[in-house]
Amino acid sequence: MAARVRAPAVAGSFYPATSSLLASQVDQWLEQASACPPPSPAALIVPHAGYMYSGPVAASAYACLRALKGRVRHVLLLGPCHFVLLNGLAHPDAEALRTPLGDVPVDGTLRARAEATRHVTASDLAHRKEHSLEVQLPFLQRALGDFEVLPLVVGSAPPEEVAEVLDTLWTRDVLPIISSDLSHYLPYELARRVDRETADHILQLEGPLEDDRACGAAAINGLLLVAKRRGLNVQLLDLRSSGDTAGDKSEVVGYGAFAFYPRA
Fold it and tell me: What InterPro entries does this protein map onto (predicted)?
């Protein structure tokens, strides 16, 4: 029986559909990103817009993973569910996720542990058109090489529920990555102020964030709870908007990249 593979939904629109062009673009951004001093991050928050808008911001976080290539084998992806009403969290009923760079295996062990929390179910519908997790995969493929992933879209879920899932799955060999943009469709200067306030809350591990501050607020709020319990520090790697990357400043979307580290 052929493996069930989730086909890419936004290749050719959010990012290049040609493998050579996609790899070249991602590699260029990773090379241009500022160097990340050790230690390697324990978790990340990254944006998920089209690459022309948020690609350079995402690269500032993924550049921190290059030292982990060949060492990180398990990635936990959490992001918002944009197209389907969903209670709780959901994984796709698939054995692999396809991108122009190849297939990424779904981590069956993590999936079983996630389902055991009773907060996570299977939903191909919730994943079929969703871009928030898909756009992270090419960056991970270029930064890490071979790895397995558990992609979870987060619907209506309180912070404690998301935190329970994270606490269950986030062991030393698992890298959690939260996918979220920040403010949406505000004038440029107002967006800068609002996103700076949001960034300050994240840096202080202060939740909960409201949905109008971050479309992935449900996932971020769960991460903030767990990070606070574990005594993690947060570093802001980049904070920009589509007004900085694409030019139009009348209505912008905010993007931030954050890395979480064990306290020294």
Answer: MEMO1_fam
